[in-house]
Structures are given as C-alpha cells and as structure tokens.
Amino acid sequence: MNDPKLLRLLEGGIRTGQHMMIEDVGETIDSSLDALLLMQFTEQAGGRKMLKLGDQTLEFDPNFKLYMTTSLANPHYLPEVAIRVLLVNFTVNQEGLEEQLLADTVQIERADLEEQRNNLIISMSQDKRQLKEIEELILKQLYNAKGNILENEELITTLNKSKVTATSIAERVKETVRTEAIINEAREKYRSVAVRSSLLHFVVVDLGELDPMYQFSLQYYKGICLKCINAHHTVPSMDEPVDVADERVAKHVDLLCREITRSVFNNIVRGLFDQHKIMFSLTIVAAILRKAGTLPHDIWFYLLRGPKIAPDPSKASNQVDKPADIPISDSQWRSIIALKESISQLSFLAEHMQAHPEDWRSYLESANPFDVAVPGLETDNVEPSLASFLKLLVIKAIRDECLSAASLNFIGQCLGPSYVEIPPLDLERTLGDMSSHAPLVFILSPGSDPAPVMLRLARSHGFGDKLHMVSLGQGQGVIAEAALNKGMSQGEWVFLQNCHLGADFMGRLEQILKESVFSAAAAPSTEVASTEDGKSVHDEFRLFMSSMPSKVFPLSVLQNSIKTALEPPKGSIRVNLAQSFASQVPVEWFDDSSSSFRKLCFGLCFFNAVLHERKKFGCLGWNNMYDR
Questions:
Q1: Which tens digits make up the pLDDT trace of 256-279?
Q2: Dihedral, CA atoms, 566, 571, 574, 579, nearest 10 degrees?
C-alpha cells in the first residue's frame, strides 16, 4: 500500500483488465482510490466506461479485478469503507491450521504416505472428470440421434465403451477409498503433533493484545515448528512388527509434542517483557489442559475474570455467616461465597470453614499455600492438574498475595522448571537463529541499551569494523537507507537504533525489506541471493533494529523478525547475577582468568545484583537512585 508506484500500476491494470492485489492495507484506504471503489464511471461514445484515478482519466476494462489484504489481526473498518468493498474473513482457524500442520508433519515424518495420498487425490479427481465427460458424450449423442436409437451403431458402441470404462473406474474408486482409509489411519497417528502446534499458535497470536510489538506471522510460527520436527526426525524401519511400530510412533509423537512446546516457548519468550513471561507460560498450560478436557472452560475463565456478579452473603438464599475464628476480611468472604456458588468442586468451602476453623487458620498462616492441601478438598476422583488449579482459585480468594508464586509452582508442576526459571538472554544463540532474511528486533524498555552488547558481539565475530550503527530521528532516513544498501550488497551488519523515533522512515524501511530481505527468503541458499527486483542480499548480511513499543513500527517487519525484549536487571539476586554474566562477562575470558580475578569479578557482579535488589526501596539509605 505504501508503494510510490501504486497508482501507476493500477492505471496499467485498469486499462488492460488485469487482476491486482494490494497488500498490507491499514484501517483507512487512500482517498485516491475512492472513485475506483465507488465505481464512479462516466459513459462515452461507443459505450466505453471511463474512470478518473488521481489526475488521470482511464478507460475501464470490465475484466479488471482488485483485491486488498491486511495483516492486522482484528481490523476495524468504518462503515464508509465497509460499504465500498466485499469483506472476507480469510484468517486461519484452529481446525484449518491443524490440517495444514498435519500435512507438513506427515510430509517430514512419512513422505511416502503424503505422496501416496496426493497421488490418490489426483487419481480420484481424474476418474470423476472422466465419468462426467462420458455422461456428457452420451447425452449429446442421445440428443442428436435421429430415428430409432437402437439402430444407431455409434451410440450403441459409445454406450458399450462407457459401460466398460465406468465399471473400471468404479473398481478403481473402491480400491482408492480403501487405500485412502489405510493412509488416513497412518496419518492420524501424527494428529497430536498438529493439534499441539495449532493450539500453541493461537496462544502466541493472543499475545498481541498485551503489547503491539508481540506480533508473529503464521509463516514465522510454522518455521519454528517444522524446524523442530526436522531436528527430531527419525527414519522408520519397514521390517518391525506392527505393534512395535505403533509403540515407537506413539513415543516419537509424544516427544515431538514436548519439543515443539519447548521450541515455541523458547523462541517467543525471549521477545516478551518479564511481566508477561509467566502469563505466557500459564496460558500455555491452560490451553493444553483445556484441549485435553482436564480443565473446564468456566473454571479457567473464573481465574481470569472472577464471578460474573459479586454475591452479597447477607442476601444469599442459604446464608452462611463469616466465621469469627478465621482472620479474613469481608471481601475475602465474598470471594469464598462466589467460589461456593460458581464452582461445583468448591461448593463445600463456606460450610467447611465454619466447621473446621483450626484447619483454615493453619492454611492461612502457611508460607506456601500451594504446597498445602486445601482443607476439605477431595482429590481422589479429581485429575491432579485440576486439583492444583482449584488451589489457585482458593489462593486467589483468600491469599491473593501468594497467587504469583502459586502460579509458578503450578506451571512447574505441569510443564517443568524450564518454563518457570527462564534463562537470561543469550545473544550468541539468538544470532545463530538469524539469517540474511531474518532480522532481529530489540524491544526496549526504559533504561535498556543494546549498543554495548552489539559492539562486543560484532567484535567477537570479526565484524567490529563492518557494523553500521544509525540512530534514527529527523533526517537520518537517508543515512539508514545507504547503510542498508551497503550492508546487503557487501555482507555487513546494520543496526538501526530507536526506530520509534523515525516514524517518517518506517514506511520506506518496510518497502526496502519487502523488496530485498523478505523476498530473498525464498531464494536459493547461495552466497548472494537475488530478489525479484534484481537486488542482491549477501548471505552474511545481518540487520538489527531497536525500538520502544510503538504502533509506528511496521507490522510486516515485526511479524517476520526475531524479537528480543531488553530490560534492566531486576528480580532475584540469582537472576541479576545470571544476566550480568550473560551480557557482560564472556565465558572463555572468565574461565581463563586467575582464581583471584574470578572471585573479584563475581564479587563485583554480586554487589551490583544486591544494589539492584535495593532499588525497590527507592533512595532509602542512599544519596541517589542506583541505575546501572
């Protein structure tokens, strides 16, 4: 939509009757297209239709068709836009994506099955077309027949041939249906992988509601899943017994589900801020449990939203007074009544608190309520994961201050500690995931600066003098474009800083990357990949960008880039130490140093971590706020 040649291309399409597509349309459409969308024609001699586009009057070819697409997840078009076009929801749904991913998975794991299935589909289509042609030929000859049709030798010969052909095709169709059933049965063994991949995709899509920078394209997401499947692909043995093969496939599918979940989590979580990481982990757990039928939807949404209407205990039909022996507030008691009335598994709460105040006092005084059994909760006939989730609801009601820690325990119990103890940013590993057509975007927060880390990374890889750093702002667009062109042609690194300050350059940046970097993604893996426009992208070219969360950052660039969120060290002393060592202390340099120097380095990092922990108290006991 931002292409400066758009009107010129439209003029050619309107005159010649071509079909054209405009990509990445926003929520508003350029006013220069109003006459075209409203079909404001003028008639001329000879019945020719003329249309004014911009300052040009063109002859309109009736074969012309215009399509427009948008990358916005949930666009809102004003009525004056909606009445001019036909809106079609072309977004993928969970079932459709599941079928796509199933085909991709089987293509990798059992390419023979997928090829055989595709051949069957083609064969069935050809047979049906042939039957239709025979029927049309018979009807045509019957229509044109004259006199007694029993004396028409040509018609009788055609009928005999068609009978033989139809019988043969019917036998092939029966055989094809049997073969297709066998193939589908074998494909269904990999259904769990497609279900898990499709499920996680919509969890990732929902992240865009938290921050405008959390955008991931379907192509990028599928690349993560398929890369993981390829990494764990095993060649099946054709000689093993059926029961052994089924057991092996079941174990392999279970492994793929776990590894895809881990791979998606690791790729996405590095682009999230700390406040959203645990939320992402909890959403993954809930999505998996809900799909398995373990966690009912109403219980999950109760944790998110609470009761629909907060109950008044004094007006309840079966009123239960707040126990005087248990130190809880009126609002906490209302939460207990709401749980009692909304969640059938917790309907005993109010009466049990009345009858067993000692047990509930102990529960309220426990340091970690998630590790303590909820008094009165029967878990014998309840799934362990559901029982643990019910604990979260009780904790939210009367121990709200412990909900975050309890959520971490719940995630670790369901998925493992790697989804809770998230390692610090590893730029070396992130660099390994990059390529000439996969840029990296640093999502900044106040106080974070990736420039020193970038300089060390470039020097360690021999690009110290081949790193072009441009801080965007007024008048810097020309310099940034020159750096991009040089980097793409000569295989150098380019770092565009503070993209949120270069709003006027973002449209041009999107166009450059679409014409070069992203279009070269499908080019052969050679030293220099050529794009459709003849431009070249060197295989060693790397593009880095940094930006604060901003809506001016191009959506297509965000969706097709690797993202990393940068925040100043915060959290526990352990997290601060890990981040300091990961970003400031090279492993080889630390290991090769003397014992006394390593102690000095560790002491300095530890002191820095302690100071960061003290920041929560402001400047209490200090002359100035510490922010290093």
A1: 999 999 999 999 999 998 889 999
A2: 10
Place of tokens 């025979």: 134
The end-to-end CA distance of the chain, in Å, is: 43
Alpha-carbon span 55 to 32, nearest angstrom: 9
Average pLDDT of the residues in 339-364: 90
The yes-or-no verdict on residue 534 having pLDDT over 80 is no
Q: How far apart are CA 105 and CA 93, in angstroms?
A: 18
Q: What residue has token string 């997401």?
A: 221
Q: What is the pTM of this model?
A: 0.80
Per the CB < 8 A criterion, the answer to whether 229 and 197 are in contact is no
Burial 526-535 (b: 16+ CB within 10 A, else e): eebbebeeeb
Distance between CA 472 and CA 254 in Å, rounded?
A: 47
Q: How far apart (Å, rounded) are the C-alpha atoms in residues 363 and 554?
A: 51
Burial of 295 (0-12, 13-18, 19+ CB in 10 A): buried
Average pLDDT over residues 498-520: 86
Please state the three-class secondary structure of 100-116 as a single string: HHHHHHHHHHCHHHHHH
> Is the separation of the CB atoms in 244 and 283 below 8 Å?
no
Question: Which residues have CB under 8 Å from 239's CB, separation 6+?
Answer: none
Please tell me the number of Cα atoms within 13 Å of 521 on its side-chain side: 15
pLDDT at 59 over 90: no
